[in-house]
Amino acid sequence: MGCVGSSEKGVDGHQKKIKKPKVWKHPESLTRAQLKQMRDEFWDTAPHYGGQKEIWDALRAAAEAEISLAQLIVDSAGVIVTSEDLSTCYDERGAKYDLPKYVLSEPTNLKDD
User: Fold this and answer.
1) N or C: less crowded end of the chain, CB within 10 Å?
2) This protein's superkingdom (predicted)?
3) Confidence tier at 1 by pLDDT (50, 70, 90)
4) What is the CATH number of the domain that holds 91?
5) Structural domain tally of the chain?
6) Distance (Å, rounded) from C-alpha 35 to C-alpha 110?
7) DSSP single-letter state for residue 84
C-alpha cells in the first residue's frame, strides 16, 4: 500500500539515480546558437505532447541543472525516472515524458559560433 510520500523504486529498493547522458554526435556540426534554438523549440512545444506543464517545467529545470540538483528537482516533482539520463520519465499519473539527447547534453561535434 502506498502513501503520499511513496515513489517508484528500483530493484535494490532505492530511487533510480540520475547520471550524465552518454556521449553523442549530431549528424551535422551545430553551433551553440543552433543547439540553443533546437532546445528552445523543444521546450516551447513539449507540453503539447501530453503530460502536465508542471512536470515539463521540472524536467527542463533538471535538464539544465547539475546532476545533484537535477536529482532533487525530479524527486520533489514526483517524476519517476526510468532511464538514468532522464530521456524517459513518467509522472505519478503514468504520463510518459521523452526527452531528446540535445536537451540533455551537448554533442561532441559542437562548433564555435
Assistant:
1) N
2) Eukaryota
3) very low
4) 1.20.225.20
5) 1
6) 8
7) T
- Report if residue 16 sits inside a domain: no
Q: Nearest 10 degrees: CA dihedral of 8, 52, 100, 20? A: -40
Kindly list the distances between the CA atom of residue 98 and the CA atoms of 2, 13, 85, 110, in Å, as whole numbers in the listed order.
26, 24, 11, 23
In the numeric block, which cell numbers belong to residue 28?
551535422
pLDDT score for 15: 61
Task: Judge whether 48 lies within some domain.
Answer: yes
Contact (CB, 8 A) for 23 and 108: yes
Which residue intervals of the chain are DSSP H helices?
Answer: 32-45, 53-63, 67-77, 101-104
Residue corresponding to grid cell 523549440: 41
b or e along 69-92 (b: 16 or more beta carbons within 10 Å of the residue's beta carbon)? ebbebbeebbbbbeeebbbebbbe
Share above pLDDT 70 across residues of the chain, in percent, rounded to a whole number: 87
Q: Is 87 within a domain?
A: yes
In a domain, 1, yes or no: no
Average pLDDT of the chain is 87
pLDDT (average), residues 66-80: 95
